[in-house]
Amino acid sequence: MEIGGSSESQNETKKGKSKTPRKPKESLLKQKSPAEFFAENKNIAGFDNPGKSLYTTVRELVENSLDSAEAISELPVVEITIEEIGKSKFNSMIGLVDRERVDAQLYDDYETAKAREKRLAKEARAQEVQAKNASLGKKVKEQSTMKGMKGRGEASFYRVTCKDNGKGMPHDDIPNMFGRVLSGTKYGLKQTRGKFGLGAKMALIWSKMSTGLPIEISSSMKAQSYISFCRLDIDIHRNIPHIHLHEKRNNDDCWHGAEIQVVIEGNWTTYRSKILHYMRQMAVITPYAQFLFRFISDAPDKNVTIKFARRTDVMPPVPLETKHHPSSVDLLLIKRLIAETSKQNLLQFLQHEFVNIGKSLAERLIGEMGPEFSPKMVVKSLTDQQIVRINQLFRQAKFDDPTGDCLSPAGEYNLRLGIIKELHPDMVATYSGSAQVFEGHPFIVEAGVSVGGKDVKQGLNIFRFANRIPLLFEQGADVVTRTALKRINWGSYKINQTQDKIGVFVSVVSTKIPFKGTGKEYIGDDINEIATAVKSAIQQCCIQLKSKIIKKMLAREQQERKRNLSRYIPDATNAVYDVLKYMSQSHASKKKRYSGEEAEILSNITANLITKETIKEKLAEHVEKVDYEMALEYATQSGVTEEPREDIFIQTLDPENKFIEFQSPIFVFRLVC
Ligand SMILES: Nc1ncnc2c1ncn2[C@@H]1O[C@H](COP(=O)(O)OP(=O)(O)OP(=O)(O)O)[C@@H](O)[C@H]1O
């Protein structure tokens, strides 16, 4: 790849036709370190602009904290604080003296008197239009007074701190974990939120680019007598940590976990809602974690404190590290596995370094490779050609699919809890699919579909999760959105796609999520296996909902019928009474004689023993009876043998709040101790 060139060589190109003999061309070849590459292309890691960088920094730190607590089966407690730092405070932090503007015209936001006049006139006109619209009851748009301003404007700085109760980090590893791009502990074949060994370093690179300040890490591992403290930044060109301070401090409180602090440029105003949505959705998919989110500003009215309480103590099982499936490997990987294996011969290597290759299959595979292969041959002596042969066979042979045992899906219970907590829907259905396979990697799709609820807009409200990370960006291209919009016939499940308030929650877990880009923002729609599993999981939820919806519709119709019949009771009473009165008069005056039961009724009318009130009561009783009989008939037909049931969820006793909550979609029952 040609990256830039020396000024000399550029001059040469410009001059082009010079007749002077050319000097031998200097080589244009240059190298870049991974840190340099990501610093120059930070958008591919989710650091597109200051606002998005603030969001991604929060994400990366929170996800590391959750991975870390879950790795030691500790119910996560994560505290995240974003502290706004004014320009003066920031300057004093870096030892820079504030300076007043002297040459005003030098600045990008300088406005000439004429331009100011023009702008004010325009704003006044806009205000007039707004006032007019408001008086007509029309929606008014917020006016931006600084619209059209040139330049990047004043930067805003934030100190982001994330503290957890996780496993901490070994003292000596901390510098590389935070100061060397593409280094991490999550490269193994395991379901984790982190994968690339990049996130925390990107936060540091961004802080270096925007504020020049280092990152600070405090960490202690379980039962460790000291807390490691490290202040470092990164040598971008060499991709190595540049350590300012690395020391051991007392750990008198026997704390374990990590606290990471970084000062970056950001934009809280534009990304406030994204960050809060992220935290809310993270709390939904991780109801066994407790989050404390704080935004601290110089203006106290802008402060935000949200505690997302733990809703359950049930943690999904810890994801397990697994071995490669033979259909997911390539030449490079086979070579690496050969270099790293502790097994001596080919038979042992095949048996122990891959899943789904038992002894007899390994023997058959070796037989199939050709006469120069044997079970006892030393695996490290395989030639390049022989490795190609193994790879070819792996691609063509049939292997059992990997099981999903190593995965840790959120679980239907957690998903349901999250949906109820988030949307308070009228009805909800959840489904957990069985493990499927994409390119040798197992994956599980879980889905939840809800109808109704508070703060839910009409139409589809889509919530996506991958390895239990909420995905908030690039929604349009994501497999879940596309499937919900285009491949589900909502009408056939009695759900109105545009009028109903529909919540669609889909969570995918895998040893390898095929994200588009390192920013982990969406899963493409081009993977058939995943698209099919997503569609089927949503459909399963819809099938469950359909029967609930039909029952509700029938109940509503019945209610309607009853109301309609009851509406006629007063008129029917008058009519029946008038007829009976007339008949009773004929009977009494002997104009027309009635006998038996009829005569008895007519006498009771005359004697005022049957009044309008009596008829009204009888008619009402009849409507009730008809309604009950119809309900019974419906219940017999549809096989309903019990009273309707409602799921309820019990929240654990929180030591701070002495109460237990029973939560159901329609009520919360609080037991105070
Ligand atoms: N809060 C933490 N507690 C314990 N270890 C941590 C913590 N934060 C980071 N680490 C360690 O530092 C390593 C590097 O973190 P980083 O965020 O750069 O990458 P990652 O999480 O491995 O992958 P990704 O780039 O996909 O997020 C992690 O693999 C982990 O071992």
Please characterize this protein's 3D structure:
By secondary structure, this protein is α+β, with helices and mostly antiparallel strands. The chain has five domains: 36-92 and 154-308, Heat Shock Protein 90 (2-Layer Sandwich), CATH 3.30.565.10; 326-396, Orthogonal Bundle (Helicase, Ruva Protein, domain 3); 412-544, Ribosomal Protein S5, domain 2 (2-Layer Sandwich); 568-638, no CATH class; 643-673, no CATH class. Helix content is 39%, strand content 18%. The chain has 18 helices and 17 strands. The chain has helices spanning 7-15, 34-40, 50-71, 87-93, 113-135, 174-179, 199-210, 268-285, 331-340, 346-353, 359-369, 384-396, 412-423, 479-487, 528-567, 569-588, 596-606, 612-638; strands at 77-85, 156-164, 215-220, 226-235, 240-250, 257-266, 290-296, 304-308, 427-432, 436-438, 441-451, 459-466, 469-471, 501-510, 649-650, 659-663, 668-672. The strands form three sheets. Strands 5-4-3-6-2-1-7-8 form an eight-stranded mixed β-sheet. Strand 3 (215-220) and strand 4 form a beta hairpin. The radius of gyration is 36 Å and the shape is extended. The chain starts with 6 loop residues before the first helix and ends with a strand. Residues 1-18 and 145-150 have low confidence and may be disordered. Residues 60, 64-65, 68, 164, 166-169, 177, 184-186, 194-201, 258 line the site of adenosine-5'-triphosphate. GO terms for molecular function: ATP binding; DNA binding; DNA topoisomerase type II (double strand cut, ATP-hydrolyzing) activity; identical protein binding. Residues 402-561 form the DNA topoisomerase VI subunit B transducer domain. One of its GO terms (biological process) is DNA topological change. This is DNA topoisomerase 6 subunit B. It is found in: Nucleus.
